[in-house]
Each structure stands twice: as structure tokens, then as C-alpha cells.
Amino acid sequence: MLRALHHPLAEHILTHLRDRTTKPATFRSLAYQLTVMLAIDATHDLPTEAKAIDTPLEPMTGRVLAHPPIVVVAILRAGVAMVQPFMDTFPDVSVGYVGLERDHVTAVARNYYCKLPPLPGKRIFVVDPMLATGGSAVQALTVVKQHGGADPRLVCIVAAPEGAAEVQRHHPDTSIHVAVLDRALNERKYILPGLGDFGDRLYGT
Ligand code: PRP
Ligand code: URA
Fold it and tell me: pLDDT category, 104, cuts 50, 70, 90?
């Protein structure tokens, strides 16, 4: 299942993110805002439980978030941009990191780091702004499952159809939440129209 954001504000933010003249400081802040929207969308079915409270006027029973707590697993390095918005939006978030880097010639991702909190019983969101060939996301989802994580969701800002199909081939039960599904990959495996190299634009490298 792939779910894209359909909201005028998401389109507005995406256009500025894509614009090559957008500077890293603005780029970071736009990525933050868009990730908050994605985090809310990707958690639309979180369980809630009843809680009795008193408003200033009368007693009532509201609803609050129930267990399980959320784990965000960020794919280094660009996925780091998506961690803080999750932590600022939800009350109980722990964070893991999987380090993956694409080879510039082959576009195949190499795993160089892994640090994960306990995953069993948690609601897990793997975050990476770009889903291109899908190689990085497939590896990260596999690592999460090897560490006992059940039913991880994938949250990305821009996806290529090729990457979404690759994730669905290897992890058919994984829901993919994106801000936008773009047209295709180019010959260097960059997303078109895309926004370029997210990590470079985020960190000014
Ligand atoms: C980028 C991006 C994804 C990956 C997507 O990271 O952040 O992790 O490419 O490509 P794929 O779907 O073809 O695997 P990159 O490897 O450039 O590393 P970086 O985050 O350190 O810049
Ligand atoms: N990684 C990026 O940062 N951008 C792309 O278009 C593809 C992979």
C-alpha cells in the first residue's frame, strides 16, 4: 500500500524544497514541516484509549494515545532530518539509526552502522526522505525485522515508482507513506523531477 499526501500545504512546501535556489537553512525547516504532516498521516490509525477528565465546565471522557510506543528508525544520513519532527509531535518516541550509503557508480547501498532500541511490541516507522531504487529502504526494513520489529512502516518525502515497487516486492506488507510519488529515475538513479541529493542539500555538502 502506498499513500501520498494530498494537501495544498504539502504541495507548497514540496515546490520550495525542489527549487534549486532554496538554501540549506530553509530546506531544513521545510523538510521539518513536511515531515510533521507525514508523521500525522502515517499514524492516522494509532490506537487510543478512553480517559476521564474534567474540563473547566464538566466531566467528560476523552481519548488519548494508547500503547504501543513509537520507534523511529532513521536511515543515515538524510533520514536524520525526519527524526526531530516525529519526536516533537508524539509523546513517547525512541530512535534507532541504520547507516546506509549508496555507491556513486552502482547506486547499491552499503550498510555501515546499526543502533536500534528494543523493537518487539513497538510501532515502527523507518524514515528516509528519498526512495529511489529502493535498495536502502529494503535493507533497512530487513534489518528492522531481523531485530524483532513487526510490521514497520516506511515514511519518505519523495518516492520513485521503481523504489516503491522494489519495496513492495521484498516487503509486500509494508505500508509506504510519501509526500509525493514522482515520475521516474534517471540513468544515475536520481529521482525526476525530484529535488537532487537530499543529504547534500540538507547539510550543504
Ligand atoms: C540517499 C537517500 C536514501 C537513498 C535512496 O542516501 O537519503 O537513503 O539515497 O536511494 P535508493 O532508494 O536508491 O537506495 P545516500 O546513499 O545518498 O546517503 P546520504 O544520506 O548519506 O547522503
Ligand atoms: N538520493 C537522493 O538524495 N536523491 C535522489 O534523487 C536519489 C537518491
Answer: confident
Take atom 2 of ligand 2 and give the residue whose Cα is closest.
Answer: 197
Cα-based distances in Å from 121 to 66, 78, 153: 13, 26, 14
Q: Which of 191, 200, 201, 203 to mutate to test the pocket of ligand 2 (most atoms within 8 A of CB)?
A: 191
For CA atoms 25, 31, 36, 37, the dihedral sign is positive
* 177, 171 Cβ separation under 8 angstroms: no
Instruction: Enumerate residues lining ligand 2, CB below 6 A.
Output: 130, 132, 190-191, 194, 197-199
Structure confidence by residue, pLDDT tens digits, 155-182: 999 999 999 999 999 999 999 999 999 9
pLDDT above 90: residue 108: no
Question: What's this model's pTM, rounded to 2 decimal places?
Answer: 0.95
- Whether 105 and 83 have beta carbons less than 8 Å apart is answered as no
> Which three three-digit cell numbers place residue 138?
529494503
What region does 134 belong to: left with phi over 0, alpha with psi -120 to 50, or beta? left
- End-to-end Cα separation, the chain, in angstroms: 34
Confidence of residue 68 (pLDDT cuts 50, 70, 90): confident
Atom of ligand 1 nearest to the CA of 160: 12
Nearest CA to ligand 2 atom 3: 197
Ligand 1 proximal residues by C-beta, below 6 Å: 75, 77-78, 100-102, 107, 109, 128-137, 163, 189, 198-199
